[in-house]
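dumping this here before i forget
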Amino acid sequence: MSEDDYCLIDATRPPRAEGPPYAECVLCREPTEHPESYKGITLCPACEWLEAQRTACSG
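structure:
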């Protein structure tokens, strides 16, 4: 079995922006790497890393 067999979290990410304006992080309101026009949840790199740690599969 591979790691993908255990982790069923959808890890799709918003597109990266070519330049400003950037979307705000939904947690800390800092600029993200994603375009402001993206409709959906956007996280800055720091919050994205923290969220990944929080939701990581264990065992």
